[in-house]
Amino acid sequence: MHILFLTDNFPPEVNAPASRTFEHCREWVKAGQKVTVITCAPNFPKGKVLEGYRNRLWQSEEMAGIRVIRVWSYIARNEGFAKRILDYVSYMVTAFVAALFVRRVDVIVGTSPQFFTACAAYAVSKVKRRPWVFELRDIWPESIRAVGAIRREKLLDFLEKVELFLYRKADAIVSVTHAFKRNLIDRGIDGNKIVVVTNGVDTTRFKPIPKDGELEARLELGGKFVAGYIGTHGMAHGLSTLVDAAKLLRDTSYADTIRIVMLGDGAQRAALEQRARSEGLSNIRFIDSVPKEEVARYWSLLDVSIIHLQKSDLFTTVIPSKLFECMGMGTPVLHGVEGESAEIVLRHEIGLPFEPENPADLVAKLQKLHDDRALRERLAANGPPAAAIYDRRILASQMLAVLETIVGAT
Q1: Deepest in the core among 204, 306, 318, 376, taking most CB within 10 A?
Q2: What 3-state DSSP class applies to 119?
Q3: Which pLDDT tens digit goes with each residue over 384-407?
Q4: How many percent of the chain have pLDDT more than 90?
Q5: Which CATH class for the 2-200+391-408 domain?
Q6: DSSP state of 50
Q7: Sheet strands side by side (includes 107-111)
Q8: How does residue 81 score in pLDDT terms, banded at 50, 70 and 90?
Q9: Nearest to 81 by CA among 217, 360, 260, 267
């Protein structure tokens, strides 16, 4: 079977969509499938093409047995709605054209969050007369409405009509959460064609390891209790709450003991760093994004991981992918996301929930984990067994079964 996968994020980018797509495609190749990925020049999240690549009309490489075709797109930093839409639309057009030259395809997959990629996948499926699958990673454009990135209701209503059209036309929908599936069913989409394949973790890479002494010394974290956020610093993440928490901690007896580390980039990174600097918060440190192969070293430094999203009904349906990496690393979680993901944290006993956008609650839970070593160790020990349930190899096999069923039915 030849799988054509359209995604605008792919390694060497290190965000969740890139990791999920690569790890699934890698496993499909190992299972004997042929996989072609059409993506763009790696540039997320800084909006700058990564070293070794150029933003060219067409370039091709092989990665772990996957044929990767990179097409030109308008590259914009992850900020500013108009520029981001131009980025998405340009990729949609060039990916569609490139797909026309990929021969003997059996099934097409288009992945969100933004659904212009799914638009391209649908168009390719019509031209090639092959089935297509919508991989649903986010309810978009509702997430735009939730964070207030755009307030033009008529435009959002139009985009929602396009979204529903794509759901109806897809031969199958692979949703990353059960809540997303319920959302679609409530909006009239046939539940029989929706399959849930959650996010997961590559347990061969993310597993308990000792603290990286060299890195700890370089970052001056020796002897400190380290609470860390690793990931995109975007509008939806509400990371001002962590800066607020650092400010509260400064005035406590924990001021010299607890350090908050923020690793990553995104639309809000500069503003967060500027605020921390202007308020003289020496107990919070910002670190630039690092290559994917380096991420586990930074996870090893954390005594506890912080996961946070804005307080919104929409985000109760989301399961942040970094939750599974925490499981794999055996890192206790302070979880500031309500809904389905909080249920996972409590079910597997891998961390403590706190109220989103409530820095006082975050500080209280952080102090609790600092003081209770036995609790930390118990939560940490529960992580790897839970991660085994969400092993990316198992999940990739589940999604492959969906693709094989769709191809076999045509």
Answers
A1: 306
A2: helix
A3: 999 999 999 999 999 999 999 999
A4: 79
A5: alpha beta
A6: P
A7: 58-63, 66-71, 34-40, 2-6, 107-111, 132-136, 172-175, 194-196
A8: low
A9: 267
Whether 383 shows a pLDDT value over 70: the answer reads yes
Those residues with Cβ within 8 angstroms of residue 351's Cβ, 6 or more apart along the chain or in another chain? 304, 305, 326, 332, 333, 334, 335, 345, 379
Count other Cβ atoms within 10 Å, centred on residue 251: 8
Tell me: the pLDDT tens digits for 249-265? 999 999 999 999 999 98
Would the CATH topology of 2-200+391-408 be identical to that of 213-389? Answer: yes
Dihedral angle computed from the Cα positions of residues 22, 23, 26 and 32, in that order, rounded to the nearest 10 degrees: -130
Rounded to an integer, the average pLDDT of 91-113 is 95
Instruction: Among 104-118, 122-136, 366-380, name the one with the lowest average pLDDT.
Output: 104-118
pLDDT band at residue 152 under the 50/70/90 scheme: low
Tokens, residue 257: 């003991």
Closest residue by Cα to residue 157 from 175, 148, 167, 145: 145
Let me know: does 71 contact 95? Beta carbons within 8 Å: yes
Q: Which residue has the higher pLDDT, 151 or 362?
A: 362
Q: Please say if the pLDDT value at position 32 is more than 60.
A: yes
- Check: CB of residue 3 under 8 Å from CB of residue 375: no
CATH fold of 213-389 reads: Rossmann fold (3.40.50)
Radius of gyration in angstroms for the set of CA atoms belonging to the chain, rounded to a whole number: 21
For residue 153, the model assigns a pLDDT of: 67
Determine the 3-state secondary structure of 9 from DSSP.
Answer: coil
Close Cβ partners of 32 (under 8 Å, ≥ 6 residues apart): none
Pairing relationship of beta strands 58-63 and 66-71 according to DSSP bridges: antiparallel
pLDDT mean across residues, the chain: 92
Each domain of the chain, given as residue ranges in start order, spans: 2-200+391-408, 213-389
Q: What is the dihedral of CA 392, 394, 400, 406, to 10 degrees?
A: -120
Q: Give me the sign of the Cα torsion angle 223, 307, 230, 22.
A: positive
- Calculate the alpha carbon distances from 26 to 11, 66, 79, 162 in Å: 12, 7, 31, 31
Residue 266's pLDDT is what? 85
Other Cβ atoms within 10 Å of 373 Cβ, number: 10
The tokens describing 285, both together, are 């440190």
What lies within 8 Å, CB to CB, of 281 at 6+ separation is 243, 246, 247, 250
Amino acid at 245: A
